[in-house]
Amino acid sequence: MPWNGSYGFLFTRDCVVRNAPACSGLYALFTSDAWVYIGESDDMQRSLLEHLSECGPEWTARYPGLAFGFWGMPAYQRAACLKALVLELHPDCSPAQV
Questions:
Q1: Runs of H (alpha helix) within 1-98
Q2: What is the CA 80 to chain-centroid distance, rounded?
Q3: pLDDT for the residue numbered 95
Q4: By CB count within 10 A, which of 14, 23, 45, 75 is most buried?
Q5: Which DSSP letter does residue 94 get?
Q6: Number of H helices, E strands in the chain
């Protein structure tokens, strides 16, 4: 299953607040070279802000140019899509690791 969500918002607080919706879906952190993390949430904006406050400095230092994207979808579809994307894209950090 290919990523069918948005691309390319810089992973900063301002960009998350301006661009990430507070709704159900999948979200991803990535660079031009690697998928870093793919997660699911009832509120993607809140989850991205939590990652930013908990891991942001470490991840932005380790992954220059770190960006985020999101893919809105109903809750009942998220788990299966997340599993398929993790298997296909092999993010550096899995949801269980963070």
A1: 13-19, 44-62, 75-89
A2: 16
A3: 67
A4: 45
A5: -
A6: 3, 4
33 domain residue, yes or no: yes
Which residue in this structure is represented by tokens 């999948």? 26
48 pLDDT above the threshold of 60 = yes
CATH number for the domain harbouring residue 42: 3.40.1440.10
Domain-embedded: residue 2: no
CA distance 56 to 87: 24
Please give the residue range of the domain that contains residue 56: 9-89
Question: Are 37 and 51 a contacting pair, CB within 8 Å?
Answer: yes
pLDDT band at 97 (very low <50, low <70, confident <90, very high): very low
CA distance 53 to 93: 16
